[in-house]
Write a structure and sequence with these properties.
The complex is a heterodimer of chains A (1065) and B (386). With 1065 residues, chain A is an alpha+beta fold. Chain A is 54% helix and 9% strand. In chain A, strands 10, 11, 12, 13, 14 and 15 form a six-stranded antiparallel β-sheet that branches. The two termini of chain B are 47 Å apart. Chain B is built from seven helices and 19 strands. By secondary structure, chain B is α+β, with helices and mostly antiparallel strands. Chain B is globular and about 60 Å long. Classes of the chains: A alpha+beta (1065), B alpha+beta (386). Chain A: This is AP-3 complex subunit beta. Chain A: Keywords: Cytoplasmic vesicle, Golgi apparatus, Membrane, Phosphoprotein, Protein transport, Transport.
């Protein structure tokens, strides 16, 4: 039908009948001196090109104008050249010199467009010229020209792949570029030309991570997908520990085959390596990538969101569900089809990720069929024990839909739910049986097929259903359904011994009118009945077989002959016929109903290949995680900021026992306010500054002015800003790169850091002698630091009000932190000696009535949780007030808000009536007072319970001197300081009571204090380790002022409230 | 990496205009597109991705046009689709409506735009505001001294050009919320959510730095404003225009940005908190004898449309309609279509979101006025009847 519409297109052109006149006219116009005429002519020519008309004979006339001064004309000439240069190579060469001149133009845009056109001319002869031009442009002043150079690289590569080596050099150079403008384009070139040269990325990895947020959306997509691949080659799998734990949990109910099948390879090796495996620690660079991509989930571009989601899917530990809602959002608009395909794949492996958004996938009557079916797929994947009733109810609505394909798909989905979730199998089956009386034959037929599969799993119990189905043979006409019924009856003829022969009788009657697949099943049924019940069916069988012998279809004839030989004993006494029963009535494995998206996840999500479910040309395989992480030091660049602080964190983590799968969760929050974040900000800022303001160094100052202006605008802003600067400063100083100006300080700090490093090193050596790979000698890190500082620390120079922080104090606190983290014995002893029991006494977790005799209370013990220093340890007291023993007490699959993690207590095997038991579990609340919800399971029951921590329990005491305290407090002013006035009641004025009440409310350590009316307390939040400083200034007559300084403003505010309440009560 | 060529086809599948970016897929391959499309449509398996051998067509439909990107390599599919949508967006900015007619009238510009939007299969400058600076509709006007190149493409702030001037500096903020609701036949709410967008119309000089304050719950908790009288809303799935500093938002929930000039959508968000359905409908559909059914069937569109001009709060309306139908009956009348509701409530947001402040800071220190308007609309508001 397409050809007949051809005329539509040329309707309004002058018509192809007088081309020569037309062109003469145009040539004349191009030859004049008037730009307006030239422009008019060029516009007409371009319009011809756009419409797909041949304008090549105008080439000589057009090419003359390449040097035209008018930029509009020039632009159109460029458009023309790009289109026709390939066809008219000799003539095209005439224009080359113009471009070469253009490449030297003082105007960056002209340089860029000259390069762009030059590189778009696909003429092999000019390859050397292009190469030269690209090389030059790669070191151009203007980032825009460099960007164009990056774009030109793949063009040249496609023209002449021999240039690869030289091009890789250029790519390497451009990869080092620090501007956001270039980053996306050069990564694109990298992917196009040399995706295998992953080693080129090492040095630029951190920079790319940090620039990412400022790159334009297309660049972001490309970079993210490249980094996904990179990370797969460089880091260890974050799920290797989890998979073991989770698998056990998951095996308990269903779907384990899936996991096994998928993970078979990796799991086997994992299992083999199990005894030898070291505890998994996420490489800080891996963490950096996850952290820096997360904000991009808020991008408006669906492509970016999708890219981040796939990154999280492929790289993040299972607990970190990056995408979640972000993906369900674009469902309404843009790229629904692609997104749903990906969601379908992801929802198989990470059901939890989308579970809360189940309802977003409900189908609307307005959705197109394809979308409906994809949504159905997702709903089915998401169905689990808890939500299955809702899902099934929803499915019921769908069955009434007008869209028959969709109804059929729904019935299949019900079948899959039934196989996956044992508990609802009967419900589903009943539902499906009800559908058998539906008036729509398609529905009935589809149901029969699904029922057949379900029955195969447990045929014994379902004689009734088989009988019901047998009755249907009178009505159902759909061949597939008839065949299914016959097969069922044949297979389970023992369960319906009376009906089966009758069915065969009916079928024998209608045999000739049946469809082929039905006929085959009739033969099948006859054979099976003959073997089990030959008395009643011998004649019938013979009749059917004789009919089949003369059937038109050779398959049926063959089958009949073959069956006869098998079942009817002949004189020759075939060996086979003796085993006929075994052959026909062998137990058959039940079919597995599974998602068609099951194995798709080996394609990188979001790629075309994933969409096609087939490898497209040029697909870069997403490699499996390496077993041993390659040397991470390759990513070390001269900028040393990363090293120290993250090292410290890592050291702490090192001690974590291997089973703590909370690793991943504790990571992000902990780092949310620790140094790499602030670093990344300053880094990216400085680089974007250098990008925009290359020619004018003034812009930097302007920026600062603006900053200050903003600051004046509102006080809170200023203080916030200050606070930030301070935190930044705090973090940077210990790395020996404070203000570069004062040499005194420099030497000072460097000596102190090296000190701290030495201590920590030695400790570390004791702990883990072999494995600290990332360590590089401190001197090598520091030396180049001074070079970079000027750029990075610009912000820090501005506020003169900020006091230079003297390094020793910091070092000592960080030392303390080190100690705290490292020496387990110490920390267990000290706080338990000093901190009184929490004010919050026993809290009820499960009431006797609700728990059916099981009473559960919990207390916050304030002892560090031995498994993980970031966890709050919670003592759980069980007592059994019923009269039967309670068995198998354990924590069931927790559904936790992002970041929160639980270390379960070991299962309590049995609790006799009247007996009590206590267990300890650790909860990482992520420095928030969000409740941790989880299930308490006994062998028979599950109880939903939740523990919400008082804010005071989210911290642990820290010991510091008064001076240290004051210094730290000085750094946490402004936004981070919360002050409240209060009146102390008479009962609460003695030293003892005040201290007692405060420490009971919050797990803080007292700081010695010179003046008598002041009380000071200090602590650190458990997850992020942020300082919490509390000062109570009691004046005579009961007036008092309470101040809390903490980076965590939420915690600070809540703490103030709690403490005041405790004191004034 | 991505598209090899981009085509715009008319409704019959005839190429109106095309741009070949990489030259690795023959342009004639597009002839396979339409037959494939028709074939798949008949099979009922129409998908936005069609394949013919090694060539894959990624396509979207806009009014009566098909936009098709061809590729033979492993492209990033979501990127290509996003790009196609972006292309439509840009064309719409240029021609108001993107239709066959508008393409025919503007071949040169369309071609130039296609040229600028993508280079060698990789998206380039896609911001229509910036494109409009150097690809102009009345290019004749530009004879005088437009050899100056727009500096914006080379800027770090790629969405706003310098030197914009207005006599009166104003910002118009539209907070538009649409309510999605799905109710089943028993009257229980299956899905209820609010999807909101904040749109800005910016008439500001220079390079202003804007900061928007909302009654965002997380922010309130951060700053200790929560509790008391301050009503706050919990925003989910917040998405921002490129201009918003995401890292800032991630750190302390500040929405700060340098806005593009003119209209743009600053952010969108979602609230899944249950709201009381704004408009409730109870329907009774009775089927009497064979020939009388109590719903209206309009010829062609199969719908009953009931429009109410204004609907004061707390009121109820009732409609009763009888239809006499011909006595010829389809074997089965099943699956009644849902009732959809469209409405608009001015000066009101369901979520209670409020713009607390809009700070505008520019070097020159001018005073600028922000205007705020709230509207609630119906989104996908469906009540199932069966």
């Amino acid at each position: 039908m397409a050809p007949c519409s051809r005329f539509g297109i040329y309707l309004f052109s002058a018509g192809p009948s007088h081309p020569s006149n037309w062109h003469d006219d145009l040539k004349e116009m191009l030859d004049t001196n008037k730009d307006s005429l030239k422009l008019e002519a060029m516009k007409r020519i371009v319009a011809m090109i756009a419409r797909g008309k041949n304008a090549s004979d105008l080439f000589p006339a057009v090419v003359k104008n390449v040097a035209c001064k008018n930029i509009e004309v020039k632009k159109l000439v460029y458009v023309y050249l790009v289109r026709y240069a390939e066809e008219q190579q000799d003539l095209a060469l005439l224009s080359i010199s113009t471009f070469q001149r253009g490449l030297k133009d003082p105007n960056q845009l002209i340089r860029a467009s000259a390069l762009r056109v030059l590189s778009s001319i696909r003429v092999p002869i000019i390859v050397p010229i292009m190469m030269l031009a690209i090389k030059e442009a790669a070191s151009d002043m203007s980032p825009y020209v460099r960007k164009t150079a990056a774009h030109a690289i793949p063009k040249l590569y496609s023209l002449d792949s021999d240039q690869k080596d030289q091009l890789i050099e250029v790519i390497e150079k451009l990869l080092a570029d620090k501007t956001t403008l270039v980053a996306g384009s050069v990564v694109m070139a990298f992917e196009e030309v040399c995706p295998e040269r992953i080693d080129l990325i090492h040095k630029n990895y951190r920079k790319l991570c940090n620039l990412l947020i400022d790159v334009e959306e297309w660049g972001q997509v490309v970079i993210i997908s490249m980094l996904t691949r990179y990370a797969r080659t460089q880091f260890l799998s974050p799920t290797q520990n989890e998979s073991l734990l989770e698998e056990n949990a998951e095996k308990a109910f269903y779907g384990s085959e899936e996991d096994e099948a998928k993970g078979a390879g990796s799991e086997e090796t994992a299992a083999a390596a199990l005894p030898a495996r070291k505890p998994y620690i996420m490489d800080p660079d891996h963490r950096l990538l996850l952290r820096n991509t997360k904000p991009l989930l808020q991008s408006r571009s669906a492509a970016v969101v999708m890219a981040v989601a796939q990154l999280y899917f492929h790289l993040a530990p299972k607990a970190e569900v990056g995408a979640r809602g972000a993906l369900t959002h674009p469902l309404r608009s843009e790229v629904q089809y692609v997104v749903l395909q990906n969601v379908a794949t992801m929802s198989i492996k990470r059901r939890g990720m989308f579970e809360p958004y189940l309802k977003s996938f409900y189908i609307r009557s307005t959705d197109p069929t394809q979308i409906k079916i994809l949504k159905l797929e997702v709903l089915t994947n998401l169905a689990n024990e808890t939500n299955i009733p809702t899902v099934l109810r929803e499915f019921q609505t769908y069955i009434r839909s007008m869209d028959k394909d969709f109804v059929a798909a729904t019935i299949q989905a019900i079948g899959r739910c039934a196989t996956n979730i044992g508990r609802v199998r009967d419900t589903c089956l009943n539902g499906l049986v009800q559908l058998l009386s539906n008036r729509d034959e398609l529905v009935v037929a589809e149901s029969v097929v699904v029922i057949k599969k379900l029955l195969q799993m447990q045929p014994a119990q379902h004689g009734e259903i088989i009988k019901h189905l047998a009755k249907l043979t009178d009505n159902i006409q759909v061949p597939m359904a008839r065949a299914s019924i016959l097969w069922l009856i044949g297979e389970y003829c023992e369960h319906v011994p009376r009906i089966a022969p009758d069915v065969l009788r009916k079928m024998a009657k209608s045999f000739t009118a049946e469809e082929d697949i039905v006929k085959l099943q009739v033969i099948n049924l006859a054979a099976k009945l003959y073997l089990t019940n030959s008395k009643q069916t011998k004649l019938l069988t013979q009749y059917v077989l004789s009919l089949a012998k003369y059937d038109q279809n050779y398959d049926i004839r063959d089958r009949a002959r073959f069956t006869r030989q098998l079942i009817v004993p002949s004189e020759q006494g075939g060996a086979l016929s003796r085993h006929a029963k075994k052959l026909f009535l062998a137990p058959k494995p039940a079919p597995v109903l599974e998602s068609s998206f099951k194995d798709r996840d080996h394609f990188q999500l979001g790629s075309l290949s994933h969409l096609l479910n087939a490898k497209a040309t040029g697909y870069q395989e997403l490699p499996d995680w390496p077993e041993e992480a390659p040397d991470p030091s390759v990513r070390n660049v001269e900028v040393p900021e990363w090293t120290k602080c993250s090292n410290r964190e890592k050291r702490k983590e090192k001690e974590k026992p291997f089973y703590s799968d909370s690793e991943g969760e504790s990571g992000p929050t902990e780092s949310a306010d620790s140094d790499p974040e602030s670093e990344s900000e300053s880094d990216s800022k400085s680089s974007s500054e250098s990008g925009s303001g290359e020619s004018s160094s003034e812009s930097d100052n302007e920026d600062q002015d603006e900053d200050e202006e903003k600051g004046r605008g509102s006080e809170s802003e200023q203080s916030e800003e200050d606070g930030k600067r301070k935190t930044k400063k705090k973090k940077k100083v210990p790395e020996g790169k404070g203000e570069a100006s004062s040499s005194d300080e420099d030497s000072d700090s460097s000596s102190s850091t090296s000190e701290s490093e030495m201590t920590s090193e030695s400790e570390e050596e004791q702990l883990e002698p072999a494995s600290w790979r990332r360590k590089t000698p401190p001197s090598s890190k520091r030396a180049p630091a001074t070079k970079e500082i000027s750029l990075l620390d610009l912000e820090d120079f501005t506020p003169p009000s900020v006091q230079p922080v003297s390094p020793p104090a910091i070092v000592s606190t960080s030392l303390a932190a080190d100690l705290e983290g490292l020496t387990l014995t110490d920390s267990t002893l000290v706080p338990s000696l000093l901190s009184p029991v929490s004010r919050v006494g026993r809290q009820e977790l499960l009431h006797r009535v609700a728990g059916e005799g099981l009473v559960v209370d919990y207390t916050f013990s304030r002892q560090p949780f031995s498994g993980d220093p970031h966890m709050v340890s919670v003592h759980i007291h069980f007592s059994n007030s019923s009269d039967t023993p309670i068995k198998g007490l354990h924590v069931g699959t927790p559904k936790l808000p992002a970041g929160i993690s639980i270390q379960e207590f070991p299962e309590i095997e049995s609790l006799a009536p009247g007996e009590s038991a206590t267990a300890v579990m650790g909860i990482n609340f992520c420095d928030s007072t969000q409740a941790a919800n989880f299930q308490l399971c006994t062998q028979t029951r599950q109880f939903y319970v939740s523990i919400q921590p008082p804010v005071g329990e989210l911290m642990a005491p820290v010991f510091m001197s008064e001076n240290e305290f004051k210094k730290e407090q000085g750094k946490l002013m402004g936004m981070n300081e919360i002050t409240e006035k209060l009146m102390l009641p008479d009962t609460c004025r003695s030293d003892h009571t005040v201290v007692q009440k405060v420490t009971a409310t919050a797990n803080l350590g007292r700081v010695p204090c010179g003046t008598s009316d002041e009380y000071r307390f200090a602590g650190r939040t458990l997850t992020s380790g942020s300082l919490v400083l509390l000062t109570l200034d009691a004046r005579p007559a009961g007036a008092a002022q309470l101040t809390v300084n903490s980076e965590k403003m939420v915690i600070g505010t809540m703490l103030v409230k709690d403490v005041i309440q405790a004191l004034t009560q | 990496m991505s598209a090899s060529a981009v085509f715009i086809l008319d409704v019959k599948g005839k190429p109106l205009i095309s741009r070949n970016y990489k030259g690795d897929v023959a342009m004639s391959k597009i002839e396979h597109f339409m037959p494939l499309l028709v074939q798949r449509e008949e099979e009922g398996a129409l998908a936005p991705l069609l394949s013919h051998g090694e060539v894959h067509f990624l396509w979207i439909k806009h009014s009566n046009l098909y936009l098709v990107a061809t590729t033979s390599k492993n492209a990033n599919a979501s990127l290509v689709y996003s790009f196609l949508y972006k292309t439509i967006e840009v064309f719409c900015e240029y021609f108001k409506e993107l239709e066959e007619e508008s393409i025919r009238d503007n071949f040169v510009i369309v071609y130039e735009l296609l040229d600028e939007l993508m280079d060698f299969g990789f998206p380039q400058t896609t911001d229509s505001k910036i494109l409009q600076e150097y690809i102009t509709q009345q290019s004749n006007k530009l004879e005088t001294g437009k050899s100056r190149v727009p500096p914006t493409v080379t800027n770090a702030v790629s969405w706003r050009s310098e030197g914009i001037k207005y006599k009166k500096n104003e910002v118009f903020i539209d907070v538009i919320e649409s309510v999605n609701l799905l109710v089943n036949a028993n009257g229980s709410v299956l899905l209820s959510e609010i999807v909101g967008t904040i749109k800005l119309k910016v008439f500001l000089s220079g390079m202003p730095e804007l900061r928007l304050g909302l009654n965002d719950r997380v922010l309130f908790e951060l700053t200790g404003l929560s509790g008391g009288k301050n009503k706050s809303v919990e925003l989910e799935d917040v998405k921002f225009h490129q201009c918003v500093r995401l890292s800032r938002f991630d750190n302390d929930r500040t929405i700060s940005f340098i806005p593009p000039d003119g209209d743009f959508e600053l952010m969108s968000y979602r609230l899944s908190t249950q709201v009381k359905p704004l408009i409730w409908i109870e329907s009774v559909i009775e089927k009497f004898s064979h020939s009388r059914v109590e719903i209206m069937v309009k010829p062609e569109r199969n719908v009953v449309i009931w429009s109410i001009k204004s609907f004061p709060g707390g009121k109820e309306y009732l409609m009763r309609a009888h239809f006499g139908l011909p006595s010829v009956e389809k074997e089965e009348v099943e699956g009644r279509p849902p009732i959809g509701v469209k409405f608009e409530i001015p000066y009101f947001t369901v979520s209670g979101i409020q713009v607390r402040y809009m700070k505008i800071i520019e070097k020159s220190g001018y005073q600028a006025l922000p205007w705020v308007r709230y509207i609630t609309q119906s989104g996908d508001y469906q009540l199932r009847t069966s």
